[in-house]
Amino acid sequence: MKGRICSKGLWDETVPGIEFDAGGVSNYCRLQEAMMREFPRGEAGRQIWMKIAEKIRAAGKNKKYDCVIGVSGGTDSSYLLHLARAGYDLRPLAVNLDNGWNSDIAVQNIKKVTKALGIDLETYVIDYEEIKDLLRVYMKAGLPWIDSPTDLAIQAVLFKIAAKEGIQYILIGNDFRSEGKQPTEWTYSDSKQLKYLHRKYGRVKLKSYPLMSVYEYFWYGIFKGIKMYYPYHYLDYDKQSARKFLMENYDWQYYGEHHHENLFTKWAIGYWMYEKFGIDKRKITYSAQILNGVISREEALQVISKKPFTEAEAREATAYVLKKLDLSEEDFSKIWNSGNHTFLDYPSYYRVLKKYAKPISRVLKHLFGIKPKIFMEMNSRK
User: Fold this and answer.
1) Residue 291 belongs to what H/E stretch?
2) pLDDT tens readout for residues 297-323
3) Does this model's pTM top 0.90?
4) Quick check: 35 and 376 in contact, CB under 8 A?
5) Which label site among 156, 231, 337, 345 has the fewest CB atoms less than 10 Å from its CB?
6) 5 closest CA partner among 284, 277, 273, 276
7) How far apart are CA 90 and CA 113, in angstroms?
């Protein structure tokens, strides 16, 4: 930990825009608490979700599917399949993005759960030469979150497939109570940024990569009526219990920390961000879990006192990543030793989002069912 640390969590002075009140409580702690109030659980949350589920079933009547669920083979998305099908009698189409980096465990987890529940699975495969080029592009740009191309592709694929199948609802298995809200500076990305960086550093023409502009999202929301919902915002969901349930009922296997079902994501978080930028995303994740009563502050401090990778693990993981990205050690050394940047160093939609935050947040809440958390973060920072 560096400098002051929040008295109720692990947020410290490495977190951009952090402030502390007289009691040592950080504004990020207040943000997390505000999100928990915005999206209630218990009986109030269950009633909200029941109404959403009822709308989904009604909109999908006489259709093969009534919702799309993005799946990665991780705990959250795997359990969401079970919850949607067995718990609320929904008829989801499971959608997985194959970017060439999914672990074998994750792939098998997806197959086991979808087969057991009788859920159809559609896998969108990106030409690996394209995703390889884009990942190298973000590394050359010196940005902390180099897995942005995967995040943007997942969102685009979900909307495109929903539109193709005539499905109005997308369900996402994210749980901010166990993940927290990462600072914008650490993870922000959008299609405008990706296009600029690809023109600047890219070598491979993008043909299969499913990029969508911000205007297309509005199109899908306004004219196609597609909405995105997060069931775990409202339901009493416990990741540890869900993991145990999946293992006992679906022969599901655990893969490690959050996002470690994807090998590149695991390395990007545990090595690239940690060692090159001094960013430890676990501080955000465990802070959220502390407030949610999943782990004690003392236990969490003990966990993050150790690096995500041992030296041997870091060498092995880095060697694997370089080989798969066709990067020599010399090329990687040049990238590693080049200057670090933030998303503000490159063109993006962010300045427009910030300038017109209030009207845009209202429109997005209407289109997608919730107020985007990036705007809640803006309100919590000066």
Assistant:
1) helix 282-291
2) 999 999 999 999 999 999 999 999 999
3) yes
4) yes
5) 337
6) 284
7) 15
Structure tokens at 297: 């502050």
Q: Between the CA of residue 311 and those of 103, 260, 263, 307, 334, what are the distances in Å?
A: 21, 18, 17, 9, 21
d(CA 132, CA 46) in angstroms, rounded, equals 42
Does residue 302 contact residue 286 with C-beta atoms inside 8 Å?
Answer: no
Cβ atoms 53, 46 nearer than 8 A: no
Q: Which two structure tokens, joined as six digits, stand for 200?
A: 């600047």
- Residue 285 included in any domain: no
Cβ distance 318 to 312 under 8 Å? no
* Within-domain flag for 282: no
Q: How far apart are CA 213 and CA 16, in angstroms?
A: 27
Query: Considering the chain, what is the average pLDDT of its residues?
Result: 94
Radius of gyration (C-alpha) of the chain in whole angstroms: 20
* Look-up of token digits 């799309």: 68
Residue 259 Rama label (left phi>0; alpha psi -120 to 50; beta): left
Spatial distance between the Cα atoms of 375 and 354, rounded to a whole number of angstroms: 8
Residue 179 phi, psi (nearest 5): -110, -30
Q: Are 358 and 352 in contact (CB under 8 A)?
A: no
Quote the number of domains for the chain.
Answer: 2
Residue linked to tokens 């996002």: 259
- Report yes or no on 354 lying in a domain: yes
Assess if residue 127 is contained within a domain.
Answer: yes
Closest by CA to 343, choosing from 333, 353, 356, 335, is 353
Within 128-252, strands assigned E span 169-171, 227-229
**Cβ(255)–Cβ(103) below 8 Å:** yes
From the list 95, 63, 369, the residue with the least C-alpha distance to 226 is: 369
- Shared domain for 339 and 353, answered yes or no, is no
Residues of the domain holding 103: 40-277+309-343
The structure tokens listed for 289 are 């879990």
| pLDDT tens, residue by residue, 79-101 | 999 999 999 999 999 999 999 99
